[in-house]
Amino acid sequence: MTISNAEPAPGGEFLQDWDDPPYDEDDPRDDGETGGPSEHGESGEPPPPRMGLLEWVEEVFAPMIQRRVDLGRGQTWCARWWAHPEVAVRLDALRLAWYELTAPAEPGGDPGASYSSWFVNHVDPTLHTLLNGDTGPMSGCRPDRHSDSPVPPLRTERPPGRSNEQ
Q1: What is the pLDDT, as a whole number, of residue 6?
Q2: Residues with Cβ < 8 Å from 9, sequence gap 6 or more?
Q3: Residue 118 lies in a domain
Q4: How many domains does the chain have?
Q5: Is there a domain that residue 99 lies in?
Q6: What is the pLDDT of residues 126-164, one digit of tens each?
Q7: Quick one: what percent of the chain has pLDDT higher than 70?
Q8: Tally: H helices and E strands in the chain
Q9: pLDDT given for residue 143 in this prediction
Q10: Is 61 within 8 Å of 91 (Cβ atoms)?
Q11: Domain annotation covers residue 11
Q12: Which residue pairs from 128-131 have beta carbons closer than 8 angstroms and sit at least 24 positions apart in sequence?
């Protein structure tokens, strides 16, 4: 799937660089203090490159998530998830947490309970919000049909006496 010709949803202009992972050079276990993991980890090998959001959703996330998404069950999904700013930002947060929590504590090690933590503390609540067919960010869409404006963004007003320049 190529999205280079796709138009982002209004307000989604910040989601332009789909294949450019913003944090791919940082090891989440490197706290910057001496004595911790080096730039290339204890093995001297650089960590594997991180996938961009689009690649990660298509190759890692979507294949592992199995949900019935139909309005009869109160849930929906939009195949054009990337056209919904809230969805893209939340999935990117899941992607970053996935990289942090699934990184082995030591080279060649196993992430242990981190996978469970990622699902229970990150995936489950995020999917509860994203797939909500009544109030979620894709609630105007159907699994087989995209709506260009399914849910309006939150409305805001400036406080009295505050101009846009302040």
Answers
A1: 41
A2: 83, 84, 85, 148, 149
A3: yes
A4: 1
A5: yes
A6: 999 999 999 999 998 988 889 887 788 889 999 998 877
A7: 64
A8: 5, 0
A9: 83
A10: yes
A11: no
A12: 129/90, 130/77, 130/87, 130/90, 130/91, 131/67, 131/69, 131/75, 131/76, 131/77
Q: How confident is the model at residue 44 (pLDDT cuts 50, 70, 90)?
A: low
Q: Can you tell me the distance from the alpha carbon of 4 to that of 127, in angstroms, rounded to the nearest whole number?
A: 26
Beta strands in 97-152 (DSSP E): none
- Spatial distance between the Cα atoms of 133 and 137, rounded to a whole number of angstroms: 9
Residue 43, pLDDT score: 52
Mean pLDDT of the chain: 76
Centre a 10 Å sphere on the Cβ of residue 51 and count the other Cβ atoms it contains. Answer: 18
Pair 59, 35: CB distance under 8 Å: no
Domain with 133 in it: 81-104+111-151
DSSP state of 31: -
Task: State both tokens at 127.
Answer: 């999917």
**Residue 40 amino acid letter:** H
Instruction: Enter the tokens of residue 153.
Output: 């963004």
**For the whole model, what pTM was predicted?**
0.69
